[in-house]
Amino acid sequence: MESNYRAGNLFADVPTDLSNETFEDIVRYQGVVIERITSLGHRTSEDSWYDQPQHEWVMVVQGSARLLFADGVELALQPGDYVNIPAHCKHRVSWTDPDQPTLWLAVHYPR
Amino acid sequence: MESNYRAGNLFADVPTDLSNETFEDIVRYQGVVIERITSLGHRTSEDSWYDQPQHEWVMVVQGSARLLFADGVELALQPGDYVNIPAHCKHRVSWTDPDQPTLWLAVHYPR
């Protein structure tokens, strides 16, 4: 029997220094990454895009944010809102709430 | 440019008929499954265990639940509480809230 389960809470120990957006691994295993991202008013720099080699599924758990896609569509995200973003689907974070931390849960998985 | 992103909300369209626990795929891709599970008082039948060939990371998003492991440890889960459960780590759902739907987010990923 293997029983090394590992527990935590997504709302626990939110970084207090949010001068930079933070990325914290929850699970990292053979190309699959589950991470918590904490934003506070951060957005992707003006003329750059995420163009990722892996697929990403991302959900806002707390706070609010906006995602802009290269086709011009902008999605406003509230808690529970998720987006599945295929590899190389260009996107940027166009806004996150400056008044409270926005917690994202992201799952990166291989092509 | 690939831009077939796909959006949804984890709290949307919760099944109204919860006579059975429900399992709904959000993403299913090459051995990785992201799913929403909705429970309403359901638990694993008394003398059976989940003994899964894949790893599972699971988080309670709404409601509350208890997970029992074969080593006798029982975890009480509230929103935001998550557990990473290795493949073949035997566990059972020993309790879920009978008064409100409990929403779980589960990520199954290959060994």
Secondary structure layout:
The structure is a homodimer of 111-residue chains.
Chain A: E1 6-9, E2 22-29, E3 32-39, E4 55-62, E5 65-69, E6 74-77, E7 81-85, E8 91-96, E9 102-109
Antiparallel strand pairs in A: 2-3, 3-9, 4-7, 4-9, 5-6, 5-8
Describe this structure in words.
The structure is a homodimer of 111-residue chains. Chain A has 111 residues and is mainly beta. Chain A has one domain (22-109): Jelly Rolls, CATH 2.60.120. Helices cover 0% and strands 50% of the residues of chain A. The first copy, chain A, has strands spanning 6-9, 22-29, 32-39, 55-62, 65-69, 74-77, 81-85, 91-96, 102-109. Chain A has a five-stranded antiparallel β-sheet with strand order 2-3-9-4-7, with no helix packed on it. A three-stranded antiparallel β-sheet of chain A has the order 6-5-8, with no helix packed on it. In chain A, a hairpin with a 4-residue loop joins strand 5 and strand 6 (74-77). The radius of gyration of chain A is 14 Å and the shape is globular. The termini of chain A are far apart. The interface between A and B is large, with 44 and 44 residues. Strand 1 of chain A pairs antiparallel with strand 7 (81-85) of chain B, so a sheet runs across the interface. Chains A, B: InterPro entries: Cupin_2 (IPR013096), RmlC-like_jellyroll (IPR014710), RmlC_Cupin_sf (IPR011051). Chains A, B: Residues 50-107 form the Cupin type-2 domain. Chains A, B: This is Cupin. Chains A, B: Pfam families: Cupin_2.
